[in-house]
Amino acid sequence: MTEAAKSGVTSYELRKDGRLRVITRSVESGQQVLCWIVRAGRFFYGTNPGSSTISLYTVDGKGRVSIGGKDGVIATAGGDAAAEQVATADPNAGRAPGAGPIDMAAAADGRLLYVQNTLAGTVEGFRVGHDGALTLVSTLREGLPVFSGGAGMEGIIAW
To answer: Which of 43, 44, 88, 136 could be cross-linked to 132 through a Cys-Cys bond (beta carbons 3.0 to 4.6 Å apart)?
Structure first.
C-alpha cells in the first residue's frame, strides 16, 4: 500500500481468515507524494510527482519491503546483491517539481516500464535492467492530451 503523505510503502500479509497482518511498516523514500506503485519483473517502482522521481523497491521472500539509493534518489543496486537491494532513478532530472511521473504501467514480461508525465505531457519508456536500473528507450510527445486548467492525462496501460 502506498502512502502519499509520507511517500511510504507498507506491506501486508493476507491471512486465511481474510484479516491483514502488517509485514513492513511505511518504508519511506524521502521523496514527495508517492502516487503509484507497479511491479515490473521482480522490482516495484513508485512515482513521486512532487519530486519528479521514480523510486525502486524490492520485496523479499517474506514480504519485507526495502528501498535503497542515496536519499531514495538516483542509485543503482550492484552485483549479486541486486535481488535484495533497491535503486532509484530520476528520469526527469532537471525538470520542475511536479512535472514528472504520476502513473506507470509495466509490460507483461517486466522488461519495460512506461511512465506517464502528466504536466510535461509525455510518456517515457524505460528498459528495466537486471539490477532494477532504468534506461530511457523512448519518449512519446505527439498526440497526448495537454495539461490545461488543472486537468491532464491520467492512467496508463501496457501489455
So the answer is: 43
For the stretch 94-146, pLDDT in tens is 445 456 777 889 999 999 999 888 777 788 888 998 888 888 898 887 777 76
Using CB atoms within 10 A of its CB, is residue 40 exposed (0-12), middle (13-18) or buried (19+)? buried
The residue among 54, 57, 1 whose CA lies nearest residue 25 is 1
- Tell me the pLDDT of the chain averaged across its residues: 75
What sign does the CA torsion over 65, 71, 75, 78 have?
negative
Per the structure block, which three cell numbers stand in for 10? 507498507
Task: Write down all domains in the chain, each with its CATH number in brackets.
Answer: 2-140 (2.130.10.10)
| 83 φ, ψ (degrees, to nearest 5) | -65, -25
Q: Is this structure's pTM higher than 0.85? A: no
